[in-house]
Amino acid sequence: MKWIKQLSWSLFGILCLAQVSVIGLQIVKYERILTQGEIFLFDVLPLDPYDPFRGRYVTLRFKDANKAPLAKEDEFMEEQRIKGYALLEKQEDVTVIKEVTFHKPKRNNFLEVTLSSTDTLYRGINEKHETMVYFSLPFDRFYMREDLAPKAELLLRAGSGVALKAKLRVLEGKGIIEDLVVGDVSLSQFILTQ
Amino acid sequence: MKKKGETQASSIALSLVGFVLVGLGIISILAYNWAELGHLERTVLAVGLLVGSQAFAFWVKHSKAYNQSLLEGSGVLWFLMVGASLAIIGQTYHLGGTLSDFLGGWLLLSFLGVWVLPSFSAAFLHILLWTVVWVSHHEKFGEMINTTMQLFMPPWVLFVVAFSSLAYYMVQLRKAHDANGTLFLSWAIALSFMSVFFIELAIETYELRHLGHITTFLALFFALYYVIGRLYLSHGEKMWQRPFVLIGKVGIFILLFCHLSFRSSHWMDTIGYTTEEVFFMSDLMIGLGMVFVLLLVLFVRQCKSVPSEVLIILSPFIFFIYNTLIQREEALVYEAIVFINISLVLGALIMIMRGAKESCMGMINQGMLLIAIAIWIHFMDADFSLVAKGLAFIATGVFFLAMNALVRRKLKAHS
């Protein structure tokens, strides 16, 4: 009977440690991206849904960030892949996805993405082709204060003329949304001043 | 002694309600997404809530292990605080993923808590959470309703978690079969299995869209619940103490009532009773059938005479014959409906007779109620005016009450 008690206490300790480790490692991982990651800006459109545990958030539709051409060196790979790497390129004040590759790039300006499908397009009489890769980014939401999220959606509805950008921090292929900005102002601040 | 048990049960219930409300209140306040809180404050909150609930559980397990209400309360609080911590991390770093992904992570991170305290209320919440995660991540079910349902963890992990919960339930059954905690776990297991079965049944019959198969499956499932409840998984004499029996019984009665009317063939036509695929034997059906036969043998060996609710036990066979009649190339719809009506009346009569023999008022009432509902259903079928239908209802009601009073008086005199 004593060993059952000892086992129960050991399990108790292991479980506590595992739970704290998971939470702690997540905090360390994302704080590292926030402090050391490079900044990229994406055009986005917000929608306002609700999560009973994490609160109200705006769902983000990333403009021109669900497809990109496949890198030339990966053209003839027939293997089915789930994970790919989107190469990011800064153009003026916005970031575009230049291409997608199946190999982990050595530079830092890439983001791990989940692949959904590929499509080969044939062009011209020489049948030059280009493979387009469809994918989804690893983030799609931005949590906001309960009273601000619906206002954000109202204010930024398509056609309102306000351009919203997602400020991303990217490090070693992992990225998180640092903030949503209108010009140089944080979205929350922008809504409060309207 | 009984009074002491009742006091302890109400103390546990109050403690549970209190801790659940506190936990949900904390989650709700945090879900406001306080913009005033910086990353440091949020980090301290996430870790603090988790470590705080762990420390509280540790203190209870170490120093107050005899206090069942505190033990159960700390289990629930710990479970909820794991979810709160994950929620804070999710909202702080704006992590993607669906609500189901979040619930999956919560389940995975907390399922062992049930064992280490131990706490039946945490186990109850785990079983419910597991069911939600399983249902919301069933890939085939997702295809059926045109939604992508993919879990970040492989399905075998969910099986391991389910195995853990089932093992805990079995241990509780052996240790304290008739305790309130085990009864609550029985309810959770019964509802969880039923949800999983309904989803599997929907997938199984989706391609064929065949109502006949569904009713046979359902009859088999509910009869199985009834038998397993009667054999092993009841925790007292009252109906709410027998979750498997209650669900099985209610399920079978609803199925029977849906097939009594002579007009039922109309809705059968519209929702998919066809003459094709007369005998559809899938792996699920064969599996269910084999378990049912095995349990039936055990049940017959335990009951020396014909059980009073033989109608429920025989319902899979009744529906099998009914479907065979109705799914012939030249469908015998009228004969099939007559067959199911005769089966119900005979079953109800057996209930009344056995109830009278065993001086069981509840069983007599149940049999009479079945017959009364059957009469009402056929009366509603008939083309009478509302006044005639109303008078018939009153007459049946008065007859029912008079019979009840008569039987009660006779039983009183007999005893």
Radius of gyration of chain A, in Å, reads: 21 Å
Multimeric status of the protein: heterodimer
- Our measurement of the CA-to-CA distance between the termini of chain A, rounded to an integer number of angstroms, reads 67 Å
Derived structural class of chain A: alpha+beta
Largest sheet of chain A: 7 strands, antiparallel
Query: How many beta-strand segments of chain B?
Result: 0
What does the average pLDDT of chain B come to? 84
Order of helices and strands of chain B: HHHHHHHHHHHHHHHHH
* Helix fraction bin of chain A: 25-40%
Portion in helices of chain B: over 70%
**Radius of gyration of chain B, rounded?**
26 Å
What is the overall number of helices of chain B? 17
Unreliable spans of chain A: none
Overall pLDDT score of chain A = 82
Structure, explained:
Chain A is α+β, with helices and mostly antiparallel strands and 194 residues long. Chain A has two domains: 1-36; 38-193, no CATH class. Chain A is 26% helix and 44% strand. Chain A is built from three helices and twelve strands, in the order αβββββββββαβββα. In chain A, the strands form two sheets. In chain A, strands 1, 2, 3, 9, 10, 11 and 12 form a seven-stranded antiparallel sheet that branches. A five-stranded antiparallel sheet of chain A has the order 4-8-7-5-6, with no helix packed on it. Chain B is an all-alpha fold and 415 residues long. Chain B folds into three domains: 1-96; 100-208, no CATH class; 213-375, no CATH class. Helix content of chain B is 78%, strand content 0%. Chain B has 17 helices and no strands. In chain B, helix 3 (68-92) runs parallel beside helix 6 (120-136) and helix 10 (211-231) packs antiparallel against helix 11 (243-258). The two termini of chain B are 29 Å apart. The mean pLDDT of chain B is 84. At the A-B interface, helix 1, strand 3 and strand 9 of A face helix 2, helix 3, helix 4 and helix 5 of B.
